[in-house]
Amino acid sequence: MSDTPHIPQDSSVPAEIHRLLHCEPGVGFAIVDGEGIVRFANPRSAELFLQSKPEAAVNMSLEELFGKEWAAERMAVLRKVSATGKPAIIRHIRHGKQIQSTLRLLSEPEDDEILYLVITTEGEQDPAHPEAFEIIESKLAHLGPLEPLTRREMEVLALIGHGMSTKEIADTLHRSPRTVERHCDGLREKLQTANRVQLAEFARAAGLRIEDANLKRV
């Protein structure tokens, strides 16, 4: 995929975007306005969110791209960033992978419109100064290849990702080891994996925690 960003001709911030792209290769950058319209997306951002190219996102609304619930959750965070001036970090699962977005107010008070900068990376990154951010856990998940899993299978997979043995998982979930093994059989079949190591790779890629099994799927 090309690293050349798609920037609208009327964008007021192309120089800043180019600077950031040169400093942070492989990081997703997007600009969203106060109405939830995507004004800019670089290739990495489009890949992380849509598994597509930037042209599929630019000038589209968050609701058109991700659905009403996902858009409403994100817009609520963006409005809070605008009201407080404090950037936010939101952790979410997209296409079965854990991604983390930092949301910053890009526009100034005297500007005619509100613009937000969305910086996205794969995996969870702890900020150097967490007190400077509002840290948010998304209540929604786009599970991708994990979508066929039941809630209990998600719990078992999360615990496998944390390196637990069958007995430890059984004790944690108050189930018998035999029941846990049945869930492991189901996981291997649904995820088309041959062993526990490959299951753990799925869990780590999604950054799964046991509580993620209760997230609403979108």
What's the quick description here?
The protein is of the alpha/beta class.
Give the topology, please.
Blueprint lengths: L13 H10 L4 E6 L4 E4 L1 H8 L11 H5 L1 H17 L3 E7 L2 E9 L9 E8 L11 E8 L9 H11 L4 H8 L3 H15 L4 H11 L9 E2 L1
Parallel strand pairs: 3-6, 6-7
Antiparallel strand pairs: 1-2, 1-5, 3-4, 4-5
Helix pairs in contact: 5-7, 5-8, 6-7
Question: What would you note in describing this structure?
Answer:
This protein is α/β, with parallel strands linked by helices. It folds into 2 domains: 129 residues, Beta-Lactamase; 73 residues, Winged helix-like DNA-binding domain superfamily/Winged helix DNA-binding domain (Arc Repressor Mutant, subunit A). The chain has 8 helices and 7 strands, in the order αββαααββββααααβ. Strands 2-1-5-4-3-6-7 form a 7-stranded mixed sheet, sandwiched between helices. β1 and β2 form a beta hairpin. α5 crosses α7, α5 packs across α8 and α6 crosses α7. The N terminus is likely disordered.
What is the number of independent domains?
2
Helix run count: 8
**How many β strands by DSSP?**
7
The CATH architecture of the largest domain: 2-Layer Sandwich
CATH superfamily of the largest domain: PAS domain
CATH T-level topology of the largest domain: Beta-Lactamase
Shape: elongated
Largest beta-sheet details: 7 strands, mixed
Which CATH class of the largest domain is shown?
A: Alpha Beta
- Derived from helix and strand composition plus strand pairing, the structural class reads alpha/beta
Amino- and carboxy-terminal Cα gap: 27 Å
Radius of gyration: 19 Å
Q: Largest sheet, order of strands side by side?
A: 2-1-5-4-3-6-7
Classify the beta-strand content into a percent band.
Answer: 15-25%
Query: What fraction, in percent, of the residue positions are helical?
Result: 25-40%
- Unreliable sequence segments: 1-10
Order of helices and strands: HEEHHHEEEEHHHHE
What is the residue-mean pLDDT, rounded to a whole number? Answer: 90
